[in-house]
Amino acid sequence: MIKFFRHIRQQLLTDNKFSKYLLYAFGEIILVVIGILVALSLNNWNQNRIEIKKEINSLKNLSLDLEEQAALLETYIMIESTFYNDGLQILKHHEKHKGFLEIDSILPNLNSLATRNTFNPINTTYKELISTGNIRIIQNETIKRDIIRYYNALDRTTVIITSNNTNLVDGIFNPVLFEQTLFTANSSTLVAMASIQINLESVRELHATSKKIVLDPEKALHLFNVLKFRTNVAAGNMERYEELQKETSELLNTITLELENK
């Protein structure tokens, strides 16, 4: 093809048809430019198609992460609800008996409150998008901002729950609980301990000592205060999880609609 065009140019020059030669050369340049533009357009179209495919794949992976996070949040809410209800049961017991009498009936609740649940954010896809810079492939700027805002909220929740667990449950509640209830197990547990060769008499003494400690008004007040505090921590965690659950559902719906329109 190139030889064909060269032959035409040479023929025009040989025949002294210079004006036609210029016109032909100009037309040839235009054809070349058109060819380049078409090639660029095809390349851009192909690149855009690849970017859209990556975007759809990323949005699908984000959806899967959000679905997993929603399921975990349901579990977290249930756990914190158990902590909250256990705390309420003990506080109602205290109000009813004007102290921590019949402690055997509330020791299981106390044992429950000594534990705490760690929050695990599901953010694998988001972290990959951020670390690789591929967050840019999400073309809808509103959705992009919503995603970034959501995962910032997820990070804040991680910090808050970790701080509550470390500073409030481990640092404030548990030291008082373990100091003032030396034996946090009910009487029926004593029989089972015979099978692991524990001196039951010593255990019974610890159990009796624990009851005496919580009957002391000053220590009972201290335990009551940290129990109320621990119950409020559970309520706060539950409220945060419920808010995050709502945000998760909203973002998941937004991404689902975006994928349907792709």
Describe this structure in words.
The chain is an all-alpha fold. It has one domain. The protein is built from 8 helices and no strands. It has helices at residues 2-14, 18-97, 107-113, 124-132, 141-180, 189-193, 200-215, 217-260. It is rod-shaped. The model is unreliable at 1-5 (pLDDT under 50).
Characteristic key phrases:
262 residues, mainly alpha, 8 helices, 82% helix
H/E element order: HHHHHHHH
- Mean pLDDT equals 81
Beta content comes to under 5%
List low-pLDDT spans: 1-5
| Multimerization status | single chain
**Helical stretch count?**
8
Shape: rod-shaped
N-C termini distance? 42 Å
How many domains, as an integer?
1
Largest sheet: none
Rg over alpha carbons: 36 Å
Instruction: Estimate percent helicity.
Output: over 70%
Strand-pairing-aware structural class: mainly alpha
Strand elements, count: 0
Gist of the model:
The chain is mainly alpha-helical and 262 residues long. The protein has helices at residues 2-14, 18-97, 107-113, 124-132, 141-180, 189-193, 200-215, 217-260. Residues 1-5 have low confidence and may be disordered.
Fold blueprint:
Layout lengths: L1 H13 L3 H80 L9 H7 L10 H9 L8 H40 L8 H5 L6 H16 L1 H44 L2
Helix pairs in contact: 2-3, 2-4, 2-8, 5-8
